[in-house]
Amino acid sequence: MPTLLWTIILLTLSNVFMTFAWYGHLGTLKERAWYIAVAVSWGIAFFEYLLQVPANRIGKDGGYSVAELKILQEVISLSVFVPISVYYLKEPFKWNYLWAALCIMGAVFFIFRDRLTEETPAAPPAFESRAEKPGESVTPP
Fold first, then answer.
1. Phi and psi angles of residue 134, each rounded to the nearest 5 degrees, phi first
2. Is residue 17 in some structural domain?
3. For residues 106 and 118, what is the distance between their CA atoms, to the nearest angstrom?
4. Cys-Cys crosslink for 68: which of 5, 23, 58, 64, Cβ 3.0 to 4.6 Å?
């Protein structure tokens, strides 16, 4: 499986844990003391790090920059956060989510723009023709 795909899979799973660690307690532990929520969140965050650290190492070893990995993580984070926010925490969907996603897609474009132009094959060099004089043959250099 390609490096980027492994990185995306692991970062997506990591972000599920991260979102529950950061926000899940607002749904399930809201009646409990804050320090209970902290302890539970730290336990969940442990699993986030078990996936996030290898994801970033795989991505970095695969030739992606830290900036590219960070923007990728932000896209995944929003993609995971919105469904959890709407379906699990029962927050209403807001159009601001769409506008934020569009801004992040702009960030993706700009951070990966150089990579896109580097991978585009260059046009072959123009063929230099030498005019052949009558009675003269052209031999390749």
1. -55, 130
2. yes
3. 19
4. 64
Question: Model confidence over 101-136: pLDDT tens digits?
Answer: 899 999 999 999 988 787 555 555 555 555 555 665
**pTM > 0.85:** no
What is the C-alpha separation between 27 and 25, in angstroms, rounded? 5
**Quick one: pLDDT at residue 28?**
87
Nearest one of 72, 82, 73 to 48, comparing CA atoms:
73
Closest CA to 53 of 13, 24, 1, 105: 13
CA atoms within 13 A on the CB side of 28: 13
Gap between the Cα atoms of 62 and 3, Å rounded: 6
Q: Which residue has the tokens 């896109």?
A: 116
d(CA 135, CA 113): 52
* pLDDT (0 to 100) of residue 131: 53
The answer to whether residue 10 sits within a structural domain is: yes
Number of domains in the chain: 1
The answer as to whether 129 is a domain residue is: no
Burial label for 18, CB within 10 Å (0-12, 13-18, 19+), is buried
Query: Is 39 within a domain?
Result: yes
- Residues 18-45: what's their mean pLDDT? 93
Q: Quote the domain boundaries for residue 106.
A: 3-115
